[in-house]
Amino acid sequence: MTVAVFKFSGGPVQASEIYIERRADHEVLRQVRALDYAHVIAPRQMGKTSLLQRLSRQLTTWGWRCVYVDLSELKATDEAAWYYILGQRVGDQLTPEQLPTFTGPNDLKTYLVSVLVHNQPVYPIILLLDEIGNAQKLASCEQFFLTLRSMYRQPADYPVLKDFSLVLAGTVDPDSLVKDTSNSPFNYGERVPLYDFNVAETRQLTASLNNIYS
């Protein structure tokens, strides 16, 4: 079994559907609550998107501001349009009354710092980026991930970033997206493996299905 859910159709699990937690769910939650970065890197159809969306719902109930963006959905004819759409997606979830205009990777950092500066009452912000491999089509792909890397725990330069966390999900390791050896690799945060169901999780799924259909 290769997914953490029981569904009759494809796509991420909705709140009302059966979701079986795996070790990765608890590990990612532990990391982001510590305001660390987490990388959920696994083959397709393993439940990465479902994990991110469940994490978002859980953190939202605790007062976090969660921003989920599937980079595969940023259909754009050129790089400027890609960043523009990214800004619209991020802004729609954080400041829908005033959407930002992104023209490059640094605009994302500037915007998030600005939101955190005016963050009253104080709440953590987490950015959940799904299908990160789709950023490889950008000429500025490396700079995009270096910008995210630069936001990792920088209280000296940007004290407000102490309230920011990031989860990257996809089939490619973020380290592979920074190819220039003169730059430091994307080595912040921890990789969280996403495995198939173990015996206990399989029994939990079976019990849940029996309760529904018995």
Structure description:
- This protein has helices at residues 23-33, 48-61, 79-94, 105-117, 141-150, 199-213; strands at residues 37-41, 65-70, 125-130, 164-170, 190-191.
- The chain is an alpha/beta fold and 214 residues long.
- A 5-stranded parallel beta sheet has the order 2-3-4-1-5, with helices on both faces.
- The relative contact order is 0.20.
- The model is unreliable at 1-9 (pLDDT under 50).
Relevant terms:
single chain, 214 residues, alpha/beta, five-stranded parallel β-sheet, 6 helices, 5 strands
Mean pLDDT: 83
Please give the oligomerization state of what you see: single chain
> How many distinct helices?
6
Helix percentage: 25-40%
Q: What layout of secondary structure does this protein have?
A:
Blueprint: H1 23-33, E1 37-41, H2 48-61, E2 65-70, H3 79-94, H4 105-117, E3 125-130, H5 141-150, E4 164-170, E5 190-191, H6 199-213
Parallel strand pairs: 1-4, 1-5, 2-3, 3-4
The gist of it:
The chain has 214 residues and is of the alpha/beta class. Helices cover 37% and strands 12% of the residues. The longest helix has 16 residues, at 79-94.
